[in-house]
Write a structure and sequence with these properties.
- It is built from ten helices and ten strands.
- The protein has helices at residues 40-48, 70-76, 93-100, 107-120, 122-126, 137-149, 167-182, 194-200, 218-222, 225-231, and strands spanning 2-11, 14-24, 29-34, 55-60, 63-64, 78-81, 155-159, 186-191, 203-208, 211-217.
- The chain has one domain (28-50, 77-231): 3-Layer(aba) Sandwich (Rossmann fold), CATH 3.40.50.
- Bound molecules: adenosine-5'-triphosphate and magnesium ion.
Length: 232
């Protein structure tokens, strides 16, 4: 469904992403795990069309995305929830969700997508009229994910949803992601938190210094404690 091949991203002379390949198949949750500065967000931005790769290709549902601008990728069924959440802090929860649905252009579908978001994160329904910027960190992350779902994506790409959150909230996010898989949403989960990622993903790519170092089933990664220590 989503394929990244030979992706290289340079910032001037600095090589941030070095010949990365990864693949996400329909219905899967795939993890991309790496430390600070490993190149994760650069890959996410290239997938979302927010930066142009120096080299390589990104294919989504059999189309080459090279010439497809960011907003058109959303229409194709790709939704990227950026690191730092990308909310509109002065807008209410409901208004934020509506911003996520502009590509739908259909009232009934927009309403259904919003209800699905409230079902996934009931706290958002309670806070429907509250300004996004006044939510707690965990609630803001939930809102960001719900916003990302408003365009009815086939694939959801999440950049570090656990960042800065308490373990209990991270657990809630993990449960929501598993629920989404049950609804048929394919997910690329990009994280520093290896424990969370192993608990929800089927397969994991480990990235360090811009390169994929390892790719394996989550249970195999979980059974390599030295690797987990190294990542956390
Ligand atoms: N616009 C930029 N200009 C120059 N260097 C950049 C730019 N964006 C990122 N980098 C560098 O590229 C490397 C990879 O950054 P990136 O944000 O992709 O990492 P990351 O894995 O997402 O890290 P984090 O976990 O901190 O979010 C880092 O060394 C970073 O300093
Ligand atoms: Mg990042």
């Amino acid at each position: 469904m989503l394929e990244v091949s030979n992706l290289t991203v340079r910032y001037g002379p600095f090589l941030a992403v070095d010949n990365v390949g990864l693949r996400v198949t329909e219905g899967e949750i795939v993890g991309l795990v790496g430390a600070n500065g490993a190149g994760k967000s650069s890959i996410v931005k290239a997938i979302g069309g927010l930066i142009a790769p120096t080299q390589g290709a990104i294919t989504f549902r059999d189309s080459d995305l090279a010439a497809v601008p960011s907003h058109a990728r959303i229409r194709l069924g790709m939704s990227v929830v950026p690191e730092g959440r990308g909310l509109f802090p002065r807008m209410s929860v409901e208004e934020n969700l509506l911003m996520g649905s502009y590509s739908l252009d259909d009232k009934a579908r927009t309403h259904a997508a919003m209800e699905a978001g409230f079902q996934l994160f009931p706290i958002l329904a309670e806070r429907r009229w509250q300004a996004g910027g006044t939510l707690s960190g965990g609630q803001q992350q939930m809102l960001a994910i719900a916003m990302g779902l408003m365009s009815e994506p086939k694939v959801l790409v999440l950049d570090e949803p656990s960042l800065g959150l308490a373990p209990i909230v991270i657990g809630e996010i993990g449960r929501a992601l598993k629920q989404l898989r049950g609804r048929g949403v394919t997910i690329l989960l990009v994280e520093q938190n290896a424990k969370l990622t192993c608990s929800v993903a089927d397969r994991i790519y480990i990235i360090a210094n811009g390169r994929i170092e390892r790719h394996d089933a989550s249970d195999k990664i979980l059974s390599s404690p030295e690797l987990l220590d190294h990542l956390m």
